[in-house]
Amino acid sequence: MNIPSFNIAAVERDTGLSKDVLRMWERRYGFPQPDRDSNGERCYPADQVERLRLIKRLMDAGHRPGKLIATPVEELAGFVSRRAKARPGNESSDGSELSELLALIKQHDSNGFQQAMQQRLARQGLQRFVQDTIAPLTFRVGEAWEDGSVEVFEEHLFTELTKRLLRQAIAGLPSGQRSPRILLTSVPDEPHVLGLLMVEALFALEGAECIPLGTQMPLLEIGRAASAHRANVVALSFSVAFPQRQIPGLLQQLRMVLAPEIELWAGGGGVQRLAPIEGVLLLTSFESAVSALTDWRLAQVPA
Amino acid sequence: MNIPSFNIAAVERDTGLSKDVLRMWERRYGFPQPDRDSNGERCYPADQVERLRLIKRLMDAGHRPGKLIATPVEELAGFVSRRAKARPGNESSDGSELSELLALIKQHDSNGFQQAMQQRLARQGLQRFVQDTIAPLTFRVGEAWEDGSVEVFEEHLFTELTKRLLRQAIAGLPSGQRSPRILLTSVPDEPHVLGLLMVEALFALEGAECIPLGTQMPLLEIGRAASAHRANVVALSFSVAFPQRQIPGLLQQLRMVLAPEIELWAGGGGVQRLAPIEGVLLLTSFESAVSALTDWRLAQVPA
DNA sequence: TGCATTAATTGTCTAGGACAAACTTAAAAG
DNA sequence: CTTTTAAGTTTGTCCTAGACAATTAATGCA
After folding, report:
1. For B185-301, where are the alpha helices, taking DSSP H only?
2. I need a surface site. Which of B7, B186, B207, B294 has the fewest CB within 10 A?
3. Chain B residues with CB inside 8 Å of A212's CB?
């Protein structure tokens, strides 16, 4: 069973490192060092791809590539997330319950996980379920992914099951002619949808009319959709994983594309530490999201 | 309101054309012809981005870039999908009902669409709903997207609402220890999830235990997930939009990664016209998917 | 210790060349 | 006249190697 070797495009797909970066690292650091096929093209052996994935994970956790690449493989495993390190054993009563949920994921017990989540939803109600269960649990899963204690496929399963749960809960809420009309989506390089669903649940609970467009909408298309749906607000979500430096530019571009009377809100882990942007409302917490909605309504009354 | 200009990365995001291709076209065909900033870097004006998006759409519909780029913008609008052309007015009684659903999408009437779909689901039952409503409707939407009569954001909304409906329906089915255990996912460049949900509905109806991992799983990760979940079958979905030539290679790679006793099934619009692949079962229709399940069960009995 | 300036790090962009795979067209054979 | 084979186009992806700006770290100075 000869393990196949990956060409540069396959490595880009599987690691998330761009071709440019892969070639640059090879030139600068001497790693990766792929074989070449008869055509002079790079062929990455599986173990190098594996190491690249590990490096990428640690980079997302805040480490710097130069150090990581210089470090031998064995030691790499010893690097752990800064975030995880910074939070040693603050196991509140609720924290341990979250750990139980996390454990179900790691045991690949989808049914058990779904049942436990359903129970919590019934007990807490949708709003608190989102704020006190889904959000922190998502955070914990992200942490665990960074420090390697949760596999990618486990994270995928968690996301998939949670998406279902949330969508089901949202479907159970009343709908119809409500206001404001909020268009929910994300930009092309942002595939994470959980944040959008969480905020949709909150907005829907507060009586807003949500128009969920899914993720990855081109900017010009968002503008068109907002007009076509006569949206009052466009709400975008950026996950922590989204490259922060790109966000201000994107929001400014979108602000120019949108009609001025349409509000632009941006939330999610990616906008936590962002400088204010003209014409854009940054939602740094669930509370601020809800109060943004309240403020919008107040602002409508005098007009 | 100065319309912003896009750098090459933004254009890649918004059009789906790689940087390499954008630069190549500029060199070969003289289009696009972006301005340059003080740094010598490309700045694409919005109208060129728009034209590129149109060209990309027509390419996906089967046209060739050389012709398209040579054609003036006004005439481009006249190009229509080959598929759409080939099927002139076969409006069966069911076809017109589908058209009504499509019309609701184009009117951006989410609530009306959801209600109409719910009704059809109740009337047809899940299996026929998937086969006779969702599948053909998805096809029609794809067609309409190709010939430009449906906007991207309309297609997104359709997808989002349909996903919700299907997931809700699936959630209503019994679950628990059933067999076979089927792991459902797609490869990293395949983000389309509707096909997976449709087949999940059918498999779940037939009593299989489905493990939905969402889309875009790296190959090595699929292998790990299959072992961890003790899956009997790994089922992949490829949409019509997926580059066909890449599929055989991907499947062969994955076949090598998977333990031999785990079956590998591939379905979706992308595998319709594919040559058989050793160790991979190609599901070219919903019927073949169901019979694959039956066959698997038969094969288990003697052992 | 806190802040400003310099230095190192790192990603993205640019240019043009090469080549193989996919598709078309032309020619030959049945 | 149709089918198959061969030659020719088209097109995407990969290659090298250089430049620069933006971020992060480190130094000097108040």
Report:
1. 194-205, 219-228, 246-257, 286-300
2. B294
3. 157, 160-161
Domain covering B181-300 assigned CATH 3.40.50.720 in the classification: no
- In the prediction, which pLDDT does B283 show? 93
**CATH architecture entry for A91-171:** Orthogonal Bundle (1.10)
Contact state of B191 with A189 under an 8 Å Cβ cutoff = no
Reported as a single tens digit per residue, the pLDDT across B224-273 is 999 999 999 999 999 887 877 778 878 888 888 899 999 999 999 888 77
pLDDT of residue B93: 58
> Are the C-beta atoms of B167 and B197 separated by less than 8 Å?
yes
| Interface check A12 vs B, CB under 8 A | no
Prediction pTM value:
0.87
Report the distance from CA of residue A36 to the C1' of nucleotide D8 in Å, as an integer. 30
Q: In this structure, is the CB of residue B245 within 7 Å of any atom belonging to strand D?
A: no
Separation between Cα atoms, residue A196 and residue A186, nearest integer Å: 8
Task: Name the segment(s) of chain A with CATH classification 1.10.1240.10.
Answer: 91-171
Range in A94-108, A130-144, B177-191, B239-253 the model is least confident about: B239-253
Q: How close B218 gets to chain A, by Cα (Å)?
A: 5
State which residue of chain B sits closest to A5, comparing Cα positions: B253
- Alpha helix segments (H runs only) across chain A: 8-15, 19-29, 46-60, 65-70, 73-76, 82-86, 93-106, 110-128, 135-146, 152-171, 194-205, 219-228, 246-257, 286-300
d(CA B11, C1' C19) / Å: 27
Interface test with B, best of A56, A121, A153 (most B CBs within 10 A): A153
CATH class of A8-79: mainly alpha
